[in-house]
Amino acid sequence: MLTRPTHDVVVIGAGVVGAACAFYAARAGLSVAVVDRGPVAGGTTGAGEGNLLLSDKAPGPELELAQLSARLWQQLAAELPAEVEYEAKGGLVVAAAPAGLDALRSFAAKQQAAGVIAHEVPADGLAELEPHLAPGLAGGFHYPEDSQVQPALAAAQLLRAARRAGAVLHLGERVDALLTTADGAVRGVRTERRELAAGAVVNAAGTWGGEIAALAGVDLPVLPRRGFVLVTEPLPRVVRHKVYAADYVADVASGSAELQSSAVVEGTPSGPVLIGASRERVGFDRTVSVEVLRRLAAQAAELFPVLTDVRVLRAYRGFRPYLPDHLPAIGAHPQAPGLYHACGHEGAGIGLAPATGLLLAEELTGRQLTEGPRPDLSPFRPDRFTSSRNG
Predict the structure, then answer these.
(1) Residue 337, Cβ density class (10 Å: 0-12 exposed, 13-18 middle, ≥19 buried)
(2) What is the DSSP letter of 5?
(3) Cβ–Cβ under 8 Å, residues 318 and 48
(4) For 130-183, how does the pLDDT look when each residue is reduced to its tens digit (9 = 90+)?
(5) CA nearest 92: which of 60, 115, 123?
(6) Distance between CA 347 and CA 281 in Å, rounded?
(7) Distance separating alpha carbons of residues 200 and 171, to the nearest angstrom
């Protein structure tokens, strides 16, 4: 028999998505507890680049979620401490050949129809935006709405703000079981140290979201997709925007398990240049792949020759929480009353976190918490995979 609820909601996961869920729920007046088996941003968030992108998303549900998040990140940047390093620097997508530029032009036209700001940049205009770009590129598109944060610090500051609103944190505690009623409703969590009874539980466990779902007897097919990032020595601002090659968009949308890599290069306010991006499904294999690191370095140097002799100080890897249709799971699970999902964002979790947290808080409270349009949540239904198999 369950004890009296100690919280309105328990959020499992102290990454940026869980932090955003806790932030908006606490701001809405709910009593919130956050539980994580590790530290703040100890999973995918701590291994991210902090990209807040519209430029890589085709029109549809994910883009609508990203557009809402972009507006929310602007509001959060004005409220949170400057150390989150929010930078509205814009993105630049470049094509090496005319055929690639034609593909970018077609993609951008669809995005523009959906409200994204995108400006074509001819070959002779690229140097004005990025003086150190390789010569001979066919052209590109500038996306002024793309931005960036320092992901671990953003998660930490969102949680700090949530705590000021009354939330409590239990770090270093693995969730071993979900507390349920006789009819299967989820009403809290059990860790190795405590039980936390609650009216609702939010699964923001990222790559481990499928394991949390399984504790409630439901299926959420989250898979890890490994990626590496290189970090250079501190440099003057040789890269002004988020710059990536046109094939990055195809890599993001691909469901292939094989290794894919494309040049993604960006400077940071503190000086180091971040170099990505790779994707491969190899389970939770944490082995450092020299092949991937070499490929990323070569692709970055091809795009920015000035980086050829720059020292790489370190490389890190993370596991993106991947769902088969490339959309996160957001909202209540119909087969497990009281269980809500906020996971499966793959590499876009940092960018999509505020919208996810706000929409979850609105679903929990039953009221709209801020003004403005809302995306339709039905494409993110957590039971959509079970429904498709049974249909």
Answers:
(1) middle
(2) P
(3) yes
(4) 999 999 999 999 999 999 999 999 999 999 999 999 999 999 999 999 999 998
(5) 123
(6) 13
(7) 19
Cα 75 to chain center, whole Å? 18
Confidence tier at 285 by pLDDT (50, 70, 90) = confident
Phi, psi of 38 (to 5 degrees): -130, -155
Q: Hunting for tokens 């320092």 — which residue is that?
A: 150
Task: Note the pLDDT tens digit of each residue in 108-124.
Answer: 999 999 999 999 999 99
Judge contact between 330 and 203, C-beta under 8 A. Answer: no
Q: For the purposes of burial, counting CB atoms within 10 Å of the CB of 6, is it exposed (0-12), middle (13-18) or buried (19 or more)? A: middle
- In terms of Cβ atoms closer than 10 Å to its own Cβ (0-12, 13-18, 19+), residue 380 is buried
Residue 47 or residue 188, greater confidence: 188
Tens digit of each residue's pLDDT (9 = 90 or more) over 25-45:
999 999 999 999 999 999 989
Structure-token pair, residue 262: 């494309």
261: DSSP letter: E
Give the residue with greater pLDDT, 373 vs 72.
72
Task: Return the structure tokens found at 154.
Answer: 């953003």
